[in-house]
Specification:
The protein has two domains: 13-57 and 167-289, Aldehyde oxidase/xanthine dehydrogenase, molybdopterin binding domain (Aldehyde Oxidoreductase, domain 4, 2-Layer Sandwich), CATH 3.30.365.10; 61-156, Aldehyde oxidase/xanthine dehydrogenase, molybdopterin binding domain (Aldehyde Oxidoreductase, domain 4), CATH 3.30.365.10. 33% of the residues lie in helices and 21% in strands. The chain is built from nine helices and eight strands. Strand 2 (61-67) and strand 3 (73-77) form a beta hairpin. The protein is elongated. The termini are far apart. The mean pLDDT is 82.
């Protein structure tokens, strides 16, 4: 079986699935979560393991490499440095390409490379910075032109290699306060296939950042508008974004380096957008915790709430979780205790 690029598919998801299960002690923790839920009334835990398969597209991108008289190298690429490590990877790939030239003075090439911000006058058709593949396109453009003292390049990927699949898996455990609806993320373990990473430190930061951004989407950031279509939640007092308290208390991320792929940029893979979807593991774990909370409702007289089917919307905000946990029934239960005392 071959991919769109004509290569044999390296389907790493099964090994990733097993690896994250072992590294997170998933099976053992399921039993621990069950024991916790049996021993606690007002707090319930849930754990979930989620895989992802995400397709990305490699876009065309311009590039220019200039070797100055003092031996320094200036690189211009069409992408924008947004903190995603684009320039770091471009510097490394430029130095890697220039190191193939057999000449003196190629030591410490990375320190001699300087990436500068370009504009539409120096590089036309720069495109846009999105889709997790800007680094790949820009790096390939820099890699193409590494001999002339000043060379322009416009990288256009072959039609058969413009898209490929990314694989990853995550295990997340949460604890829900059924009185308030607060959800605490206790631990998250991620294994993500980066191909042959050009910079593991940069890719690790991208994976972690994308996951936290996904937490905002799945758990916090509720986009509310009024009848006129105007945004109601226009500040952090009402529109909740991920903060340091949102990050899992224990956050383990492993970058899996898979095999060589001739038609990908130095055999690398995207690490920006795909890991965002792994935050679904937190949403699924929250659903599992709510399900445990609803099991208690029958003994409190809420027979209808014992229906195992319920809709957990996105984002799963505190009010949503609080309602699904049966707050009204909890209040009734507490009132009954007070009346007996």
């Amino acid at each position: 079986m071959e991919s769109a690029s004509g290569e044999s598919i390296e389907f790493t998801l099964p090994s990733i699935w097993d690896k994250v299960g072992q590294s997170s002690s998933f099976d053992e923790r399921i039993a621990m979560v069950e024991q916790f839920n049996h021993s606690n009334i007002w707090h319930k835990r849930g754990i979930s393991r989620v895989p992802i398969v995400h397709e990305v597209f490699v876009r065309s991108a311009p590039g220019k490499v200039s070797v100055l008289w003092d031996g320094s190298i200036v690189v211009e690429v069409g992408g924008i440095e947004l903190g995603q490590g684009l320039w770091t990877k471009v510097k490394q790939v430029t130095a890697y390409a220039l190191s193939s030239i057999q000449c003196e003075g190629i030591e410490d090439l990375v320190e001699k490379v300087r990436v500068v911000q370009t504009d539409t006058l120096s590089l036309v058709q720069g495109g846009f910075t999105a889709g997790s593949t800007t680094s790949e396109s820009s790096c390939e453009a820099a890699h193409y032109k590494n001999i002339n003292l000043a060379a322009h390049s416009f990288f256009v990927p072959d039609s058969s290699s413009t898209k490929y699949l990314n694989y990853g898996a995550a295990v997340s455990e949460v604890e829900v306060n059924i009185l308030s609806g607060e959800t605490r993320i206790l631990r998250t373990d991620i294994v993500y296939d980066c191909g042959q990473s050009m910079n593991p430190a940069v890719d690790l930061g991208q994976i972690e950042g994308a996951f936290v951004q996904g937490l905002g989407f799945f758990m916090l950031e509720e986009y509310e508008t009024n009848s006129d279509g105007l945004v109601i939640a226009d500040g952090t007092w009402t529109y909740k974004i991920p903060t340091i308290d949102t990050i899992p208390k224990q956050f383990n991320v492993e970058v899996l380096n898979s095999g060589h792929h001739q038609k990908r940029v130095l055999s690398s893979k995207a690490s920006g957008e795909p890991p965002l979807l792994l935050a679904a593991s937190v949403h699924c774990a929250t659903r599992a915790a709510i399900k445990e909370a609803r099991k208690q409702l029958k003994s409190w007289g809420a027979v209808d709430a014992t229906d195992p089917t319920f809709q957990l919307d996105v984002p799963a905000t505190m009010p949503v979780v609080k309602q699904l946990c049966g707050l009204n029934t909890v209040e009734t239960y507490l009132q009954s205790l007070l009346s007996k005392s």
